[in-house]
Give the backbone structure.
Amino acid sequence: MIVVRLAGGLGNQLFQIMAGLLLSCRTGREVLPLSEGLASYQTVQEPQALALVSSPCLVSSRPDSVNRLVRWLSVRARAGRWLPIASVNDRRFPLGVGASHKHCPFIFVDGYFQTGWTWPLLSEASSTLQVVDFPAAPSIAAAHDCIVHIRGGDFLGFESHSFIGTEYYSDAVDRAQACGCRTFGIVSDDYGYAEKLADALQDRHSEAKFSLIQDANDALVDFAILRHARNRIIGNSTFAWWAATLDHEAATTWSPDRFVRSKTRDFFLPHERTISLAGAENRATYIEHDDQTNPLH
């Protein structure tokens, strides 16, 4: 069995599950995601990825499905980070995935797995994947030329992540308008911040129309709306990036070239139109926001 330690929000969880599924394709084993570690965060995370995707290779994480030692090794001891031969982590991904694990009864997967992907690898990992949909999402998405995802909340408190603001979104809107987009629907985990940013964009782009989509107030529905978008603008959010990745229609996606300030991404989707953020710390502008705790995507 392949034991995957889930960590972080939905976007991170999807990267981890995909790493496990890639290993499953190479070894023929089932994948058991363990979510106990999500409770250790200051803001407790939920195993949202398990409610969003399914695969015959994914097995239920029942307490009795593996013995206590295996769970302890994965969640508490973090065996996926150090155990020789039986571990897969960021340092060993994706080179050699599956090649040296054939004789290990358990393979421990522990990492964020945001680098090292190629389109063939991602296609291989997602070959058995099915995505849960929400009936209202397609019609909500279709009511707008372009869906914009604005990440606020916890991101705004981290210098490594809070480098995208009005300048980036305004640049992306310019590009979307050049392709015929006039109406922009906004989904966000932080309505207060998104509303202020939307007002700033409206001032700059008076010929466009910006509106906040607040019908759902649910991260998984927001994800579905993004996935069904006719066009989309995303920030440095793995949540939004995965919505673009799992969009079978491959709608045009304007996106930044990095998830964190200091490092350029090494893999881009075929339908991404990437905006370079070189020197972003010198030209990004920020909108004042209330200091508050927000649910994470």
